[in-house]
Amino acid sequence: MSHQSTIRFIINPTSGPKSRQDVAALIALHLDKNKYRHEIVYTAHAGHATDLAKEAADKGCNIVVAVGGDGTVNEVARGLLYSETALAILPKGSGNGLARHLLVPLNIKGALRIINRGYTSFIDSGNINGHPFFTTAGIGFDAYISSVFAGNSKRGLKTYVQLVLKEVMKYRHLPIKATINGSVFDSDCYVMAFANAAQYGNNAYIAPMANIQDGMLDVCLVRQLNFRKALHLSYCMLTKQLATDSAEYFQTNAVEVETEQEIMYHADGDFMGKASRFSVHMEPKSLKVVVPA
Ligand SMILES: Nc1ncnc2c1ncn2[C@@H]1O[C@H](COP(=O)(O)OP(=O)(O)OP(=O)(O)O)[C@@H](O)[C@H]1O
């Protein structure tokens, strides 16, 4: 009988700059063949990775690897929730928030070394209006940026930063009613970010204290933003500090938000649409992941 573990690589051919040939060749070269029997499949359309991951989990596959950015990681991970199949990541996006949070190397060879060791652990996931997320979700400006970014043909960090700089002073806060830890309050909302992982990606830390295994959601509320506060917030995010001058932080396992007019929301950087009621909660230790020891 074979003692090999089974592993399926799901490659999003549209994410990141590398060609599909490169990744498949690197997998063939660096994966431990004594330990793993592997197969490689490619996504054909948005959403396909979830079906491919579910199918692998149903067949009892030991590990499913998301090869792409946080959008691909989200689609694969949601197909593996509450299963015995572990998610691994070969980071190929521009932000790589979950890979960075889990300290997975950002190069394919290094990430394959972590898979070859095969050490696993369980992490929490979040859920916003029925959509699972693994790094962050949010309402307000960050969701607005994800909506503009989605329609932009150019990707990458430079495009993202240019977009934020162009839009940050134009976007206006909106009134919300939030329920957190039993207290109900009215507030302005420029951004309300719900963090499972500490960062959005690219080492931009929206919730520096977030622990992905504590069963808690770290909420960062920015009520209003002017130029000085925007600079301070950006500086704190990039230096992994709490921006107590411009933001408030809460820890909770669930948040309810109501808004007078519909407002945009995102899950793991993917634009989800608009809503006027938001229900956000944690699902503790719901995903098995391959992590550095
Ligand atoms: N074959 C495909 N064709 C078109 N879109 C796809 C395909 N496979 C997956 N997608 C979509 O591509 C989206 C973006 O993928 P992903 O986030 O992994 O890459 P990226 O945009 O290059 O990275 P980043 O988000 O870090 O910039 C995913 O949300 C997914 O829905």
From TrEMBL:
<dbReference type="InterPro" id="IPR016064">
    <property type="entry name" value="NAD/diacylglycerol_kinase_sf"/>
</dbReference>
<keyword id="KW-0443">Lipid metabolism</keyword>
<protein>
    <submittedName>
        <fullName>Diacylglycerol/lipid kinase family protein</fullName>
        <ecNumber>2.7.1.-</ecNumber>
    </submittedName>
</protein>
<dbReference type="Pfam" id="PF00781">
    <property type="entry name" value="DAGK_cat"/>
</dbReference>
<dbReference type="InterPro" id="IPR050187">
    <property type="entry name" value="Lipid_Phosphate_FormReg"/>
</dbReference>
<dbReference type="InterPro" id="IPR045540">
    <property type="entry name" value="YegS/DAGK_C"/>
</dbReference>
<dbReference type="InterPro" id="IPR017438">
    <property type="entry name" value="ATP-NAD_kinase_N"/>
</dbReference>
<dbReference type="InterPro" id="IPR001206">
    <property type="entry name" value="Diacylglycerol_kinase_cat_dom"/>
</dbReference>
<keyword id="KW-0444">Lipid biosynthesis</keyword>
<keyword id="KW-0808">Transferase</keyword>
<keyword id="KW-0547">Nucleotide-binding</keyword>
<feature type="domain" description="DAGKc">
    <location>
        <begin position="2"/>
        <end position="132"/>
    </location>
</feature>
<keyword id="KW-1208">Phospholipid metabolism</keyword>
<keyword id="KW-0418">Kinase</keyword>
<keyword id="KW-0460">Magnesium</keyword>
<keyword id="KW-0479">Metal-binding</keyword>
<keyword id="KW-0594">Phospholipid biosynthesis</keyword>
<keyword id="KW-0067">ATP-binding</keyword>
<dbReference type="InterPro" id="IPR005218">
    <property type="entry name" value="Diacylglycerol/lipid_kinase"/>
</dbReference>
<dbReference type="Pfam" id="PF19279">
    <property type="entry name" value="YegS_C"/>
</dbReference>
<dbReference type="GO" id="GO:0016301">
    <property type="term" value="F:kinase activity"/>
</dbReference>
